Amino acid sequence: METVYISTIGQDSHRFEDAPEGAYKVRLCGIDIDSSRPISANSDGDVALHAITNAISGFTGVNILGGAADTLCLDKGIKDSAVYLEEALRYMPEGAQVIFCSLTIECLRPKLKDYIDDMKGSIAGLLGIPKASVGITATTGEGLTGMGRGEGIQVFCILSFKKTV
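Given the sequence above, the corresponding structure tokens read:
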């Protein structure tokens, strides 16, 4: 048997709702984070879990977001993005496993520094990997995009897989 290593990329973004500034929560990496505006989404709007789900789809070839997730969300009322990620993991081939997750989050707000450790723990639990195998960075991108200007949140994810063939 041979072991191969494969990396994939996933991305997702959501804009903030056009709502008055207030005390809201946004879900990111499976945890609730204080925010001055809510995210616009059909689901819980967890852009990090959506980016990870898309990266898994890049490995398995089975698109979950826009497919099974729409059925779960729109038809069955399941808004929890962790369920979509779990659905994506069901298509992992035998002998394959996620070994590392790297996320880059671009947004002006909310400020994420105080949440990073909890976010890593949540992702590690969802993917079944050690917390040390999750990297998360956050940036405003110097305000060069709508995300960096406070219009929404964007996440890029790189997943590394190990597969025995």
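The radius of gyration is 16 Å. Try to locate this feature in the token string yourself.
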